[in-house]
Predict the 3D structure of the following.
Amino acid sequence: MTRPPTAAQRRAIDSADPVTGRLKGTQTQLAALVKRGLAFRHPRPPHDHFLTPAGHRIREAPPQAPAPAVATPPAPGVFTARIGGEEDAPEAARAPGPSRTREVHSAWQGLLELRRMTDPHGATDRPCAWERTHLVQAAALALEAAGHPPAGRDGTDGYRVRATPQPEAVAVHAPDTELLRACAATLERAGWQAGEHTEPRTRARYLLASPRRT
């Protein structure tokens, strides 16, 4: 059985950038994470360290420790893209404003940087490995960064991004054809393939979108 990370290693993993997985820590800590397959050192300067998929799984899993007697709220500063509707997390579903706009812009720029640093040719025009393992969040971030309105938890109209049974595909719903096609154009510019489909029972139109590979 794989030995769990030490407390210091877990702190480094938990404090990694929520979008890019960029790590901070001492060289000893970072080297230990690389040795365990939880991080990798980027070959190009400035040779930053990033979480591997295994490292991301460690961060997203609950710590292997007894639960505290009193529940504590999530740590502040963790960015969550708005997926639209009642399934939005409370911290992502707050009213939009200048602060949220800055957070979304920063998260999108960080994602483009992650694409650049993990693509063999430094390209930013197609999704990276993180996006392929976080399909709903990745598609929602592309839509929110482009300024499209997400559906509100109170029932207001806007896009909704949902997981599907298909591998590497999400469904995007919108209240009207105009917004649906605008979302399709945004996702295609962001490196996704998007096609319109009809729901057999309701006859509602929706997008099926997946990250482009080439």
About this structure: Residues 85-211 form one domain. The beta strands are 39-41, 49-51, 160-163, 170-173, 192-198, 205-211.
